[in-house]
Amino acid sequence: MISGPPAAGKGTQCEKIVKKFGLIHISAGDLLRAEVNAGTESGKLAAEYMNKGQLVPNQVVVDMVKHRLAQPDVQEQGWLLDGYPRSADQAAAILEEGIHPDVFLLIQVPDDSLIERVVGRRMDPQTGQIYHLTFKPPPRDTLDRLIQRSDDTEEKARARLEVHAGNVASVLDYYQDCLVEIDGSQDIKAVGSAIEDVLDTFQQSNSLEEFQHELAANTA
């Protein structure tokens, strides 16, 4: 499992993990939309709640996740569950179904750094390219047409960060045995290398206890 606040670079790291380790990337949000679009039984049930503006019950999403994790490609290659669970109820529900990660990666970045990343983002509406006024400056000839997403303001970004912090705090007790915190304030390559080191260590370990011992030794 992997979790991280908005603008922490989680999407980029998921791509790197999938490419390096061959895992199947599963996002609960993407899975929910796919089930609804495919018209499966779970998707139809979810759509009923969504059309009424209601939250989809935990058990419906849990059933979707459980079904996806049971598919042959996931059973063969392993899974990377992205941004789920987001509440203690969800964590308890999937644990009851026997779903527990080998490693829970938590990308940590100071809020002020995240705000700077978000507020400085700009998009070129002609190309879809994303720039950052400080970290990835756009070409001068595109400046006049760049736009800022409506939710890339400091006020909205802080609200999203507050929601994320609450979500993470509610689930961590379920994953203390496999939790690894990653310093996401480093550059992208350094974050990727740190994650690879953790997963390489796990693959080379003979047990969870040995993995935890090696991680403690490496971070001491």
Nearest-integer average pLDDT: 91
* CATH-assigned homologous superfamily: P-loop containing nucleotide triphosphate hydrolases
CATH fold descriptor = Rossmann fold
Low confidence ranges: none
H/E series, N to C? EHEHHHHEHEHEEHEHH
Classification by helices and strands: mainly alpha
| Shape call | globular
How many angstroms does the end-to-end distance come to?
24 Å
- Count the E strands: 7
Q: Biggest sheet, open or closed, and with what strands and sense?
A: 3 strands, parallel
Radius of gyration: 19 Å
Provide the number of structural domains: 1
Quaternary state reads single chain
List keywords for this structure.
220 residues, mainly alpha, Rossmann fold, 3-stranded parallel beta sheet, two-stranded parallel sheet, 10 helices, globular, P-loop_NTPase, Adenylat_kinase_CS
Written account of the structure:
GO terms for molecular function: AMP kinase activity; ATP binding. Keywords: Kinase, Nucleotide-binding, Transferase. The chain has 220 residues and is mainly alpha-helical. 53% of the residues lie in helices and 12% in strands. Strand 5 and strand 6 (130-132) form a beta hairpin. Helix 7 (111-119) packs across helix 8 (154-171) and helix 9 (188-204) packs across helix 10.
